[in-house]
Design brief:
EC 4.2.3.4, 3-dehydroquinate synthase, two-stranded antiparallel sheet, Dehydroquinate synthase-like, alpha domain, alpha/beta, binds zinc ion, binds ligand LNCXM5UN, Rossmann fold, lyase, binds nicotinamide-adenine-dinucleotide, 2 domains
Length: 363
């Protein structure tokens, strides 16, 4: 892809929601006014790490005549709390934010989850635009309209389905991302490879070192392929009545690990361990062949993602997994693979099989 080209990926338009586009390219801010539409006020929500970017966007919008405010959020998972949401509601209230005004979330997945949630709840729902600045935000969090915050009991337990009006993925933003965060986003890209698009796995396996950098030869292709996987799924099942659950591959254990680590682990790192666990669960349940299960370890390790977690934590993790959103009553449900790109649900696995699968990821 040349610097000038912009890829447009359509999303949604089902279940009463408006369709929107995910744009991937560079210098996309010129697209903002069309997305903002006739709003008078805009609020630019950004993390501390992107203070300059947030202020530059605010100034640019103010110079175009919008009443623009910037709301600075804590970095990373610390922003996904009810206290931070309340801080934003207060700022919107004091600015006189009405139903025709627009929230803009500029940052990683934590920022866009929080910004989308604030937009979903303010006046029972105002428009919002996502400007993801991490790989993970571009390929997953900003697309699909899942917004939310954490509670003391677990990850993303409060939220709403509230799709954005548009998503602008400016690849230049990735140049300032620490390598650890870039690699964390690869976990969701690899997830897309295992559940739907094995060409992703082949691209990474051919050049794992290149995959770790935005300068890598296939960076844009990996991002676009993953967005297409997500767009296809959420366009067919926005509110997760079935199909969308496949995007939760690896997440049942991952969310329990994140909570156990008080959200100091990056989401992608936890998803990496969670996918190895899910692969072992699939294998032990007689669904997944050995080669595909082993391929998880190989590709995740090749880019530097973790494969194991503390063995002594199983009872706590199991307890947390019970409030996973895929659970139904006392029934635990996991996404596993019947084969490469063949995701399916495993309901109520034998506790001994669960424990054995955890043994395979225990450090
Ligand atoms: N809604 C969804 O469908 C969905 C999907 C996947 C993940 N998520 C959520 O996304 C979150 C993880 O997102 P993430 O991995 O992007 O992490 P993040 O949002 O926590 O960002 C990681 C760190 O990078 C900083 N940062 C962001 N962009 C930067 C840039 N361009 N340059 C320098 N620093 C930058 C952030 O301030 C933060 O400190 C989790 O809360 C996860 O639950 C949501
Ligand atoms: O979009 C989805 O649906 C996903 O499951 C994508 C996940 O990568 C993402 O982490 C999501 O936030 C998890 O959703 P949750 O409903 O399990 O909180
Ligand atoms: Zn995720």
């Amino acid at each position: 892809m040349t610097d000038q080209s912009v890829t447009r990926i359509q999303v949604g338009g089902t279940e009463g929601s408006d369709p929107y586009e995910v744009l991937v390219g560079r210098q996309l801010l010129g697209e903002l006014p069309a997305l903002i539409g006739r709003a008078q006020r805009v609020a630019v929500l950004h993390p501390e790490a992107l203070a300059e970017t947030g202020e530059a966007i605010r100034e640019d919008l103010a110079s175009q005549g919008y009443e623009a405010i910037a709301i600075q959020l804590p970095n990373a998972e610390e922003s996904k709390t009810v206290e931070v949401a309340a801080y934003c509601w207060k700022a919107l209230g004091q600015t006189g934010f009405t139903r025709s005004d627009v929230v803009i979330g500029v940052g990683g997945g934590a920022t866009t989850d929080l910004a989308g949630f604030v937009a979903a709840t303010w006046l029972r729902g105002v428009r919002w635009i996502a400007l993801p600045t991490t790989v993970l935000g571009m390929v997953d969090a900003a697309v699909g309209g899942k917004t939310g915050i954490n509670t003391a009991e677990g990850k993303n337990l409060v939220g709403a389905f509230h799709p954005p009006a548009g998503v602008l993925c400016d690849l230049a933003a990735l140049d300032s991302l620490p390598v650890n965060d870039y690699v964390s986003g690869l976990a969701e890209i690899i997830k897309a490879g295992f559940i739907a698009d094995p060409a992703i796995l082949e691209l990474i396996e051919a050049d794992p070192e290149g995959a770790r950098s935005p300068a890598g030869q296939h960076a844009a292709e990996l991002i676009e392929r993953s967005i297409r996987v997500k767009a296809e799924v959420v366009s067919n099942d926005l509110k997760e009545s079935g199909l969308r659950e496949i995007l939760n591959y690896g997440h049942t254990l991952a969310h329990a690990i994140e909570k156990n680590e008080r959200y100091k682990w990056r989401h992608g790192a936890a998803v990496s361990v969670g996918m190895v666990f899910a692969a072992e669960l699939g294998r032990l349940a007689g669904r997944l062949d050995d080669a595909t299960a082993d391929r998880h370890r190989a590709v995740l390790e090749s880019v530097g993602l973790p494969l194991t977690y503390r063995g002594d934590q199983w009872p706590k993790l199991l307890e947390t997994m019970k409030v996973d959103k895929k659970s139904r009553g006392n029934l635990l449900r996991f996404i596993v693979l019947d084969g490469l790109a063949k995701p399916t649900v495993l309901e109520g696995p034998d506790p001994a099989v669960l424990l054995a699968a955890y043994g395979e990821v225990s450090a």
